[in-house]
Design brief:
This protein is an all-alpha fold. The chain has a domain of 54 residues. It contains 4 helices and no strands. Helix 2 packs across helix 3.
């Protein structure tokens, strides 16, 4: 099942902001191609964030499985640093 890409993109942006990363650095952290990541995470994405990349982002940044697909509605957060 493909997640809501808008939610997934916003959560990915939140993750990059939280870790002070730009798209290029995120690509390096994940061992992904910069152009491919830019197409997924840039201001005007032209590609969907795949399930595999979403899972890799969650694992790399110690987020619970499915975190990227949860809309931030003010519920429980998993931020270890209380920011």
């Amino acid at each position: 099942m493909m997640a809501d890409q808008d939610v997934r993109w916003r959560r990915a942006q939140e993750l990059m902001l939280e870790n002070a990363l730009d798209v290029e650095t995120m690509a390096a952290c994940l061992g992904q191609d910069e152009d491919r990541m830019l197409a997924m995470l840039g201001e005007k994405p032209t590609r969907k964030i795949t399930d595999a990349v979403a899972a890799q982002m969650e694992q790399t940044f110690s987020k619970p499985k499915g975190w990227l697909d949860q809309s931030d509605d003010g519920g429980i957060t998993f931020d270890l640093f209380g920011a």
